[in-house]
């Protein structure tokens, strides 16, 4: 009888196996995978804004966030099933460094390559959506600009810690997909943690790449590119990395993979 799920040790070993593969992938290919990942998350964010754009003002803000959060995980599903990489998910590659299967240099090159690929993909899909008139309506315009303005007005500490909370859920959502051996199991494994992060409003650097790009296209005077990076993308990147790239891999390496002396 085939197993329907992997236990915690088997799951950790599967994560390490993929982390080794990702760390050994050519940077140019990682960039392209990241480009596609940025597109998928951008498409998911369009759906999030579309669903929630008027519910907050006309009905209930919490329900509006919940409805947006129910559709956002489709972006992660596309990454996992079709093929793409996200900086947040690739942060787990650090666990292969903990097991001494890859070098720190290989992990860092992977992170840098996927980050810039995500940025390029996010800007590209934002431009396509802008040119397609998706954000032309007053409601979409207002909802997007309001979201972006909130993000660039976070303090460094808020961006850092919100990013930390975000990638606990995102990284573990990706991790949980390894425990399932069928498509339905993987979908539900990813959906719940990703839905929770989106509902809670935590900061995800790739999602922010998209919303900050499209808001800048809608209203060029809203903020400078430097402000978007320094006030949001940089602290959120650090927060995502500290949780998904250090905290989660190190804790589960110690729990399941570290050899006892």
Structure description:
The chain has 13 helices and no strands. The protein is mostly helical.
Can you lay out the helices and strands and say which pair or pack?
Elements (H helix, E strand, L loop, with lengths): L7 H16 L3 H26 L2 H4 L2 H11 L1 H11 L3 H4 L3 H5 L5 H28 L6 H15 L3 H22 L5 H18 L4 H14 L6 H33 L4
Helix pairs in contact: 1-13, 2-4, 2-5, 2-8, 2-12, 4-11, 5-11, 8-12, 9-12, 10-11, 10-13, 12-13
Mean pLDDT: 93
Number of DSSP-assigned strands: 0
Multimerization status: single chain
- Number of separate helices: 13
Shape: globular
- Report the span from N to C terminus: 36 Å
- Gyration radius over CA: 18 Å
Structural class: mainly alpha
Helix content: over 70%
- What is the strand content? under 5%
User: Which H/E pattern describes the elements?
Assistant: HHHHHHHHHHHHH
Would you kindly provide a brief summary of this structure?
The chain is an all-alpha fold and 261 residues long. The protein has helices at 8-23, 27-52, 55-58, 61-71, 73-83, 87-90, 94-98, 104-131, 138-152, 156-177, 183-200, 205-218, 225-257.
Q: Characteristics of this structure?
A:
261 residues, mainly alpha, 0% strand, globular
């Amino acid at each position: 009888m085939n197993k329907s799920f992997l236990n915690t040790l088997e799951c950790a070993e599967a994560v390490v196996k993929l982390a080794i593969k990702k760390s050994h992938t050519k940077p140019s290919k990682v960039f392209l995978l990241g480009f596609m990942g940025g597109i998928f998350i951008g498409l998911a964010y369009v759906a999030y804004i579309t669903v929630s754009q008027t519910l907050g003002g006309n009905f209930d803000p919490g329900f509006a966030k919940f409805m947006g959060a129910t559709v956002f995980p489709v972006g992660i599903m596309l990454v996992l099933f079709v093929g793409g990489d996200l900086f947040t998910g690739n942060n787990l590659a650090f666990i292969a460094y903990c097991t001494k299967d890859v070098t720190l240099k290989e992990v860092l090159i992977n992170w840098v390559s996927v980050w810039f690929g995500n940025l390029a993909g996010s800007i590209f899909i934002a431009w396509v959506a802008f040119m397609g008139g998706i954000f032309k309506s007053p409601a979409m315009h207002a909802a997007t600009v309001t979201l972006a303005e909130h993000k660039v007005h976070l303090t460094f500490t808020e961006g850092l810690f919100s990013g930390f909370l975000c990638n606990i859920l995102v990284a573990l959502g990706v991790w949980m997909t390894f425990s399932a051996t069928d498509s339905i199991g993987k979908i539900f494994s990813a959906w719940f943690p990703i839905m929770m992060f989106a509902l809670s409003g935590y900061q995800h650097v790739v999602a922010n790449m998209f919303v900050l790009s499209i808001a800048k296209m809608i209203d060029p005077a809203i903020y400078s590119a430097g402000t978007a990076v320094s006030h949001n993308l940089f602290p959120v990147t650090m927060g995502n990395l500290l949780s998904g790239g250090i905290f989660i891999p190190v804790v589960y390496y110690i729990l399941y993979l570290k050899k006892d002396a």
